[in-house]
Design brief:
mainly alpha
């Protein structure tokens, strides 16, 4: 007897949402949102920013293509996720980083963190963040050598603002310089306004939720304000603004901590995630060995995301108490 297949009875996994916004369109929106920061970085550091970004993108796409080819899996380079990963890796490293080290970071992000866990949608941590931490721990000197901004105002040091604050030597740049982008650091750190424009664009297009960026940035601001008010070591309001403009807070809040796969699903979980990122960031900045804590905070909260999802899903869908008979 001939076996019949009823395709209309096959149901795919949730969510069942009809939309023209697929992965490639989402990734294209993210790339467009990063363009303002890329342009500012080229203006500040020169055209090596562009060449480093292109190297990272080409390496990330190649590693994804080669892995799929080797493992005889469907090609996924067309969804542009590897392109976004390459751009974000470039945004997380100094513009003067040797190309081969950047390629190592792309290999870690694409092959180890993404593909070995099953590809897009199955990685347990943000691949670009993890690659940055691996490079930082493996090539500490190269990852902390910051080129002098070519167009900076009164630039006298290649140290980042957080590095100057941690060492306690040198003069901190003004909050306005950090807002506009006339400081040392990676291209994902130099211009807060460029990253804010990109982040607001993604929120406007409903690519990301504003919950995590708002709670992340808000927690950093409030924590810093309380700390400097309590210690009296500096102007509390000025330093609270300093901490949200310095380092990778803007890049992390808008572009790294909002990853669909590695962040909580429900709004309450997103609030916890954002607050956790802000708290860990400030704890590392104020009392840790390293001047910056954004990458570590996001990675730690990525690891806690399954627990956060489990807690809030139980409370929402299975938290009702049974009535005693």
């Amino acid at each position: 007897m001939e076996k019949k297949t009823y395709n209309n009875l096959v149901v795919s996994s949730a969510p069942h949402i009809v939309s023209n916004m697929d992965t490639s369109r989402i990734m294209m929106m993210v790339i467009l949102a990063l363009v303002p920061s890329l342009l500012v970085s080229i203006y500040v550091f020169g055209f090596r920013v562009l060449s480093l970004t292109l190297v990272c993108v080409i390496a990330a796409v190649f590693f994804e293509w080669a892995y799929n080819k080797l493992m005889k899996r469907p090609q996924t380079v067309g969804d542009l996720s590897a392109v976004v990963t390459g751009v974000l890796i470039a945004f997380n490293v100094p513009s003067g980083l040797p190309y081969w080290i950047a390629v190592v970071g792309c290999f870690v992000a694409i092959v180890i963190i993404k593909q070995l866990f099953g590809g897009i949608g199955k990685n347990i941590a943000n691949s670009a963040i993890t690659a940055r931490i691996v490079l930082f721990l493996s090539f500490a000197t190269e990852m902390t050598t910051w080129p002098l901004p070519k167009m900076a105002v009164d630039a006298t040091s290649t140290a980042t603002p957080l590095g100057i604050l941690k060492e306690g030597t040198g003069e901190l740049p003004s909050n306005m310089d950090m807002f506009l982008g006339f400081i040392g650091g990676s291209m994902g750190e130099v211009s807060a306004i460029a990253l804010i424009i990109g982040g607001l664009f993604l929120i406007w297009k409903k690519i990301i939720s504003p919950i995590i960026p708002a709670t992340f940035i808000g927690t950093v601001f409030v924590f810093a304000f309380i700390y400097y008010t309590a210690t009296g070591t500096a102007d509390a309001l000025d330093m609270a603004v300093f901490h949200i403009l310095a380092g990778g807070v803007m890049l992390g809040a808008f572009f790294m901590a909002t990853d669909y796969v590695t962040t909580p699903l429900l709004p309450a979980g997103k609030v916890v995630f954002g607050i956790g990122c802000g708290l860990i960031t400030m704890i590392i900045r104020l009392w840790g060995q390293y001047p910056e804590g954004v990458s570590f905070s996001i990675l730690i909260m990525n690891c806690l995301t399954p627990l956060i999802n489990n807690f809030f899903q139980k409370r929402m869908y299975g938290g009702a108490k049974k009535h005693e008979k």
